[in-house]
Amino acid sequence: MRSKRCGLGVLTGTVAVGVAGCGAPSTPTSSTSPTAVATATATPAPPDTDTVTVVTTGVGTWQLVTIPVALLHNDATRHGAEEVVVHFSTRSAAGRALGSLDSAAVNLAPGETLPVAADCTDACNSAASVSVTVTVGLWTAMTGASFTATGVAYRCGTGACGGGHGQGDVTGTLTTSRLRQGAALVAFAACTGSGGAIVGGGLLQTQWQGGSSGTVEVPVIVNRAPAACRIGASTGW
User: Fold this and answer.
1) DSSP state of 162
2) How many domains does the structure of the chain reveal?
3) Which letter, b or e, does each residue of 9-28 get, where b requires 16 or more Cβ atoms within 10 Å of its Cβ?
4) Most CB within 10 Å of its CB: which of 121, 167, 187, 201?
């Protein structure tokens, strides 16, 4: 009986040894590589603009009463500005420094524009201009109640009905949600002339009477008859 021998092949140089079994050549085994699966990832939101801009300022005076006013805008689209304080510094027509004071702390919802005023009677007598700085207590994504105003109207009072410095009232309807009856709030008014400059304003500390809307009447001090007035309000968060 003749024996079968397995052949051994050697390549000179790099040793590549192939050993085949005796008999029929083996059939290569195919293998399947795993297929990569794409995983969807959420695109992160761009950073918010966490700043409060002072749009414009002005002051209304009559007799010993001086009302400095600032119009603020929350530039953030997702964050509320909480415990915002406006520091007012008034000056005379000659540029001499007069009295200064802080506003009540207010809260601004994302994108909200809010007039803020303070009462600087006596200490800011005959102020002609005001400069302001703004501090924000904190930024929050968990905002509370905010307000919209409609039907705003101005009514002149003593002194102002003659077209000069005097007092008046600004009325309007505030609408909000999530605000309980009896909650404390401060309402502000800012009045502007035909060119858009602030010519006066005022504020009113009051309580919410319940429901989703209510009428407010804010006393104002103006330098001359305004072309338009606006109302805003703030409550605690």
Assistant:
1) G
2) 1
3) eeeeeeeeeeeeeeeeeeee
4) 201
